[in-house]
Write a structure and sequence with these properties.
The protein has twelve helices and ten strands. The protein is an alpha/beta fold. The radius of gyration is 24 Å and the shape is globular. The structure holds S-adenosylmethionine (SAM).
Length: 299
């Protein structure tokens, strides 16, 4: 970076005016705040200042962020309604060596936001794609939820209609992982009702307005969570985090044996036991005993 002022920490200060030549050519996926405007990395600011073009979902909304940091990038809209039309010319510019940044309205681009097809096309053509990581509502909600974070499935938005929603929930019911959904406030109660019907009274967390002034968090089983949320909080942005199924409910002995046999075909006994014990939620020593027994019977 050239000529940028540094304070006593040695970190660059605004205004961020890196020389565009310091950025390698390519597509930059830049994460931006999900509420609190201070949640932006120094590197994100460098890239937004240095890119020849910033593609934004909503240019007016992104202007707030640029103004807060004294940035004035060349910014054009890239959203679900014009993406197909614009993609070829963006790819052409990237092939000619441009540095282009993609941002969404909030958080990490591509996470329930436009960008996937652009990255796929860039990858097909060997164009460099760089992650400029930062905020994302899914990870923030998972981390504050207090629910198991070692294994999770992000399922984005559920369908708006109850029947379709329940069908999707049925496909997720046996997944041995914490489930994370984006949801809208006006559907919260009907979604919780459907979730309880399909998934049972699993532990759940509603994370609202994360990083914002009126951030709030509600933790309760699925059948009582809705009643905890005051009516005046049925607005704003929200994420629902649902605990994993009680594993023993979903794995009978025959299923554990079948999974063990399958795993032991291409893994050592020890690693098969480790994996299956984790998946079925049974104590490792019990699964180990079953595995030894199976091994003897199949010798
Ligand atoms: N790309 C974003 C990300 O990385 O999180 C998400 C974009 S998605 C179109 C928008 C949804 O994310 C909202 O409807 C809400 O479910 C969730 N969301 C975004 N900001 C949030 C916040 N501050 N608190 C809670 N949920 C948020």
């Amino acid at each position: 970076m050239h000529n940028d002022p540094k304070d006593h920490t040695g970190l660059p200060q605004a205004p961020f005016t890196p020389d565009p030549r310091d950025l390698a050519p390519g597509l930059y996926l830049v994460a931006t705040p999900i509420g609190n405007l201070r949640d932006i990395t120094l590197r994100a600011l460098d890239v937004l200042a240095g890119a020849e073009q910033v593609l934004a979902e909503d240019t007016r909304m992104s202007r707030r962020l640029f103004d807060a940091y004294g940035l004035a990038p060349k910014c054009s809209p890239y959203h679900e309604h014009n993406a197909d039309r614009r993609r070829d010319s963006i790819i052409k510019a990237l092939e000619d060596g441009a540095r282009i940044a993609l941002i969404s309205d909030a958080g990490t681009p591509l996470i329930s936001d436009p960008g996937y097809k652009l990255v796929r096309e860039a990858a097909r053509r060997d164009i460099s794609v760089f992650a400029i990581p930062g905020p994302s509502a899914v990870l923030s909600a998972l981390c504050v939820s207090g629910l198991p974070s070692d294994r999770f499935l992000f399922a984005g938005f559920l369908p708006p209609k109850s029947a379709a929603r329940k069908r999707v929930l049925e496909t997720l019911k046996a997944v041995p992982a914490t489930l994370v959904f984006y949801e809208t406030a006006n559907r919260l109660h009907s979604v919780l009702t459907d979730m309880h019907e399909v998934l049972g009274p699993r532990p759940a967390v509603l994370a609202r307005e994360l990083t914002k002034r009126y951030e709030s968090l509600y933790r309760a089983p699925l059948d009582t969570l809705g009643a905890q949320v005051p009516d005046d909080e049925l607005r704003g942005e929200m994420v629902l985090v649902i605990g994993p199924p009680d594993a023993q409910d979903h794995w009978n002995e025959a299923q554990i044996d079948a999974a063990l046999l399958d795993a032991m075909r291409h893994q050592s006994l020890k690693s098969a036991v480790d994996d299956i014990a984790k998946l079925c939620g049974q104590p490792r020593r019990d699964v180990y005993r079953r595995a030894l027994d199976l091994q003897k019977r199949h010798e």
